[in-house]
Amino acid sequence: MADTGWPGCSKSLKGVILDMCGVLYESGEGDGVAIPGSIEAVKKLKASDLQLRFCTNETQATREKFVAKLQRLGFDISVSEVFSPAPAAVAVLKERALRPHLLVYDGLLPEFDSVDKTNPNCVVIGDAAEQFSYQNLNEAFSVLIGLENPMLFSLGQGRYYKETDGLKLDVGVYMKALEYACDLKAEVVGKPSPTFFQSVLNDMGLQPHESLMIGDDLVNDVGGAQHCGMKGVQVRTGKYRPSDERHSTVMADGTVDNLAQAVDMILNQRN
Amino acid sequence: MADTGWPGCSKSLKGVILDMCGVLYESGEGDGVAIPGSIEAVKKLKASDLQLRFCTNETQATREKFVAKLQRLGFDISVSEVFSPAPAAVAVLKERALRPHLLVYDGLLPEFDSVDKTNPNCVVIGDAAEQFSYQNLNEAFSVLIGLENPMLFSLGQGRYYKETDGLKLDVGVYMKALEYACDLKAEVVGKPSPTFFQSVLNDMGLQPHESLMIGDDLVNDVGGAQHCGMKGVQVRTGKYRPSDERHSTVMADGTVDNLAQAVDMILNQRN
């Protein structure tokens, strides 16, 4: 049973969007570990008549490598079902003829192979983790402060995420750092950007009220989806903290222990 | 001649407070370099009947080592004339019986020798420069997020400073990063904190209207001093940028090319 209600949309529901890290698996050394029940839960959704997409702010690997990891963990997922910030950013850069200085994890660089990076006129940051050194942040700062019209794109705006050995600072923290250093406002690509959620809805051909987002991040998953007119459910795995249930501005449409419980609620209400 | 006016306080003036980095010298490799005319300007002030204090947000070395560097550069300065954030922070920590986790430059650590640092219940950050690694920032974050009532003290809130090889990110950038990560507001110790300026005024036994602050940082030196009722003059050295003269919220009482020019203006008006 969900402790704090459940969105009353299950009968009209046509599509489900799942966050990945903290919902399907916990990241950490190697591939991380699948969250108990989540492999089976994805199978059940795929066997239903609901559409299913995956929406992640993962920016430490290309979509191909990231999906391969999930497949190794046992998940039935293909690249075309996964939406992530880097391909969305590449589209924006090309559309506006921008040449980025990249401060991203090495593993993500291949996503930007097709983008001109000479003589940069903007900065793109992702979750660079250990590569968020003082020197690398200073380099990104130097590019921005030298531009007449500095533009910063952030692949997500998360505060932190959970790895098997503890909480880790996420890209949003460094976005705020550069915003303050350069007195500018970054453009977020990825969750909770409405453009990003809308691209997933477009791909499913669904309206917001026909779709449900399930995530562990109250602000970026649940709040972001709600901002687009979707329902948002939070799972008590991943970066979930009990204080999320008393948050001052975002209230989930439902809170459940894990993805397995969420999927059972959805499918039971449809029978 | 000053291009943009000069505060009309010179006749009632009894004390001058000088920022150090960017006013007396430019930092960089080794000891950095004295700004032309500034050694002589300090001498002239000392030979006048004006009181003189130095007020810095320097947090990469103890006051003793920092003053020794300025002396090597040729400045007539003693430790008792210099106000810096670390001793002010130590006083606050002892007063409130707080045990800090320190994220500061190694050279600053001796300032905190007398403070109990076991089982920390707050975090103090200074300009840690290269020591602002992802790992060290994560450690500070972990301490804060594990506290029921997380408290962050920041030794200054500067955005960046100038070294001989370019602009460098300052402590304020990392303060904003941790503020966002932990959803809290840091307490700033050092400029532009009114408590910090007031302690300098107290030491001189002067009222704000009898004192003038000269610095290269429009917000933290000039704005901070003005907020305390003092006049604030900006020099066009150090981190000064032309856009400072069109700033949306802070306007200097005077803007001059360098300290030498400022001191000549002060002393000429008194004769």
TrEMBL record, chains A, B:
<dbReference type="GO" id="GO:0046872">
    <property type="term" value="F:metal ion binding"/>
</dbReference>
<dbReference type="InterPro" id="IPR036412">
    <property type="entry name" value="HAD-like_sf"/>
</dbReference>
<keyword id="KW-0460">Magnesium</keyword>
<dbReference type="Pfam" id="PF13344">
    <property type="entry name" value="Hydrolase_6"/>
</dbReference>
<comment type="similarity">
    <text>Belongs to the HAD-like hydrolase superfamily.</text>
</comment>
<dbReference type="GO" id="GO:0005829">
    <property type="term" value="C:cytosol"/>
</dbReference>
<dbReference type="GO" id="GO:0016791">
    <property type="term" value="F:phosphatase activity"/>
</dbReference>
<dbReference type="Pfam" id="PF13242">
    <property type="entry name" value="Hydrolase_like"/>
</dbReference>
<comment type="function">
    <text>Phosphatase that hydrolyzes imidodiphosphate, 3-phosphohistidine and 6-phospholysine. Has broad substrate specificity and can also hydrolyze inorganic diphosphate, but with lower efficiency.</text>
</comment>
<protein>
    <recommendedName>
        <fullName>Phospholysine phosphohistidine inorganic pyrophosphate phosphatase</fullName>
        <ecNumber>3.6.1.1</ecNumber>
    </recommendedName>
</protein>
<dbReference type="InterPro" id="IPR023214">
    <property type="entry name" value="HAD_sf"/>
</dbReference>
<dbReference type="GO" id="GO:0004427">
    <property type="term" value="F:inorganic diphosphate phosphatase activity"/>
</dbReference>
<keyword id="KW-0539">Nucleus</keyword>
<keyword id="KW-0378">Hydrolase</keyword>
<keyword id="KW-0963">Cytoplasm</keyword>
<keyword id="KW-0479">Metal-binding</keyword>
<dbReference type="InterPro" id="IPR006355">
    <property type="entry name" value="LHPP/HDHD2"/>
</dbReference>
<dbReference type="GO" id="GO:0005634">
    <property type="term" value="C:nucleus"/>
</dbReference>
<dbReference type="InterPro" id="IPR006357">
    <property type="entry name" value="HAD-SF_hydro_IIA"/>
</dbReference>
